[in-house]
Each structure stands twice: as C-alpha cells, then as structure tokens.
Task: structure prediction
Amino acid sequence: MSERRRVRIDGKAPERDAPEMPAALSDCECPRLDAADWHDVESDWSDITFVRSSTNAVLGVPVGYDTARRELREKAEKLGASVPEDAMLLLGSGRFRRPIMLEVDNAPPDGKGIERPRGVAFTRLVEAPWGAMQQTVDNARDIARERYGRNPDDLWVWYLTCRQCSRERNFETLVIAHYRISS
Result:
C-alpha cells in the first residue's frame, strides 16, 4: 500500500485522543486504519487522484452504494487507471444525489470523471453508529473550522466497515475535511 495517501504535514502526534478501535471478528476484507496515521491528521493531497460519480439518495441516505462502487471500479479500468489495495471510497453529502469518489493510481491526466482535489485533508477516525452520522460529521467540521479558521471546502466520509463487521467495529468511519489550495 502506498504511503503517499497520508503524508503528515505537521509531523506531530494527533492532538486529541484517538478512539481505540476493536479488532475485527469477522472474515470481511474491510480496510483497517491505524489511528496514529489517520486520527486528527493533516495530509497532503497534492498527488491523490479519484474517479468520480454520484449515487442516488433518499433524504440523504445513499441508495445503490455497492452498485456505484462497482461502476467506479469499471470506470477506472476503462480509463486505464488502477485501484490500489484498500483504496479510499469517499461519499459526499446531498439529500437526493451524493457524490462518490474512488481512489485510483495511474489515471490519465484528462480522463472524464477524474478528480484531483489537491490541497490538504484533515481526517478523523471515529465511531459513527446509525443515527449519529450527522452529529459526527458536524463535530469533525467544527474541529476543522477551529483548526483552520474556516469551514472545509468539502466534507467526505469513508465507511470502513461492511454489513458483516459494522457492529463489532462500532461503525468505524473516517471523516475527511478537505481544504483546496487557494490560487
């Protein structure tokens, strides 16, 4: 796995105590992130690339998430890009349509649906059980705003658990506050 995804900018330890995530009990292949690398960490996104699409939502709840993931993988393949192991799969906000992005490597510079967000990402590795997602994202936005003096340009979530392991891993989720570079 490439280390470039989480290049710490400040070189410091996390500012807040990272939650202790339980060990997975199931046989699923969901990504496992080290809190020291991801919780309250600022990362350089100057070389991160995604393929982008969207999925339907009903009052903000994504519908067709698995289908969108498969379609993004197919889109990456058609573009000649590769999907790294444990690639980030980010879901944005929206009541009726939600953007979704899959991390890729070796994408063509001018491919349709390619996103190069640049800037920095402030990430928080959190537990986000059913009904707590909005509060969890709002809390991450507030912490990022306190740290950077303004709201993030984008907020993304990366669900790190599946139906099999969600409960045993306490709905482990990465919340990403993205700040674009000003020109």
User: Anything to note?
Assistant: Residues 49-116 form one domain. The beta strands are 41-44, 49-58, 61-62, 89-91, 97-104, 114-115, 120-127, 154-159, 172-179.
